Amino acid sequence: MQQIKEYLKQHEQRFINELIELLKIPSVSADPAFSQDVFNTAEAVKTALEQAGCEAVEICDTEGYPIIYAEKIVDPSLPTVLVYGHYDVQPPDPIDLWDSPPFEPVIQTTELHPKGAIFARGACDDKGQMYMHVKAVEFMIKTGQLPCNVKFMIEGEEEVGSKSLASFVDQHREKLANDIILISDTGMIANDVPSITTGLRGLSYVEVEVTGPNRDLHSGLYGGAVANPINILAKMISSLHDEHNHITIPGFYDKVEDLSEVERAEMAKAPFDVNDYQKALDIESIYGEKGYTTNERNSIRPTLDVNGIWGGYTGEGAKTVIASKAYAKISMRLVPHQDWEEITALFKTHFESIAPKGVRVKVTPHHGGQGYVTPIDTIGYQAASKAYETTFGKKPIPQRSGGSIPIVALFEEVLKSKTILMGFGLDSDAIHSPNEHFGVWNYLKGIETIPYFYQYFAEMNA
Questions:
Q1: Are 208 and 362 contacting, i.e. CB atoms less than 8 angstroms apart?
Q2: Largest CB tally within 10 Å, which of 233, 260, 266, 321?
Q3: What residues form DSSP beta bridges with 322?
Q4: CA neighbor of 87 nearest in space, from 140, 16, 160, 150
Q5: Strand, helix or coil at 386?
Q6: CA-to-CA distance for 146 and 47, rounded, in angstroms?
Q7: 299 with 197: CB under 8 angstroms?
Q8: What is the pLDDT of residues 345-367, one digit of tens each?
Q9: Contact status, residue 218 vs residue 320, Cβ threshold 8 Å
Q10: Which residue spans within 193-294 are E strands per DSSP?
Q11: Residue 367: helix, strand or coil by DSSP?
Q12: Phi, psi at 310, each rounded to 5°
């Protein structure tokens, strides 16, 4: 693997240019208007895997967007690494908050990325991080240094709940058989503080609808005499937290694990400056559940947040109207042991029960997934830790993430495999937000580090 730096230096600009071309394709899975672009991206990923030297590369049709499968079998008796990633991206809205068009990638320097960062939707989540694996495997194949077998499974529906993935995995257990699953869809603490994600929160995502009168009403003639769905919805949402920001849904915390003081103390060793945190977000104060630190609130504690709320007149000028309907989209981030379907049912029962007379409430579940914790005493984790130590010069810190990758729990259940989460993004990379970006240094560092994981994993399994 010592040739990796030389190979990177020789092909660095090509690696960057290839990623930029991939980022130009608006593969927004949530919006049917971009359907053809999603299919085009699948073709581009297939081509990239073929050019990297993979074999049996195929686009597998599903009921939704296709899954790209590829493999390079060195020797069936050697360990097999399954790489998972996704090529679809979040919608770019709101467009007017982007400093540059979301699908016209540009490289700009920032305080955290003095060597430049690629600004584009999907740069970090997950095209850039997925493509690191394609280029890392290219290096190992082209230089004859792939020490074990590798398989790829790259999907196009992650941002809409991986609707087709469960059936695909179930139907192709033998094809996907592996010894470890490798994913880069997370981040690390800082460029000089590497970390490996060891825990993910689960997710329950719902949409609620509150209906009052059978039509929009004149707010002068009817105001104060009938229930206003927007007012009611606001009150109902407000009641979901108490004065300590504790979620009020009965049974919500029944299966939440309270971490020991020892484990919380280990988590607290990760560098964190609350003033820098507030400055980066331009907020005057932190906010959250009483009794927990910021890093605990966004990783080991469950949450409930409104992701969107609308109803009535929102155009220019004024329109004095009481809307017939009001809507909101709500997500709940869950910790291990909380079952997302059970939490969704608890939410539905509670939300319907707190609706006053005069309105009707409809709760529509969208998607969800279970939380996940990976032990740090496995060969997979140890190989990843040694890989980071080799390229960063220091051991990575195990860290639980506040994000969700619901399919990780699915993989363990169906494929009986542990997952290693080797992320190279930063919290400041604005994933899912305007001006998403991924540091050029981080992108290349990922390509440099990943081959060492293969080397150490193969050695430890010998």
A1: yes
A2: 233
A3: 217
A4: 160
A5: helix
A6: 20
A7: no
A8: 999 999 999 999 999 999 999 98
A9: yes
A10: 195-200, 202-211, 217-218
A11: strand
A12: -155, 165
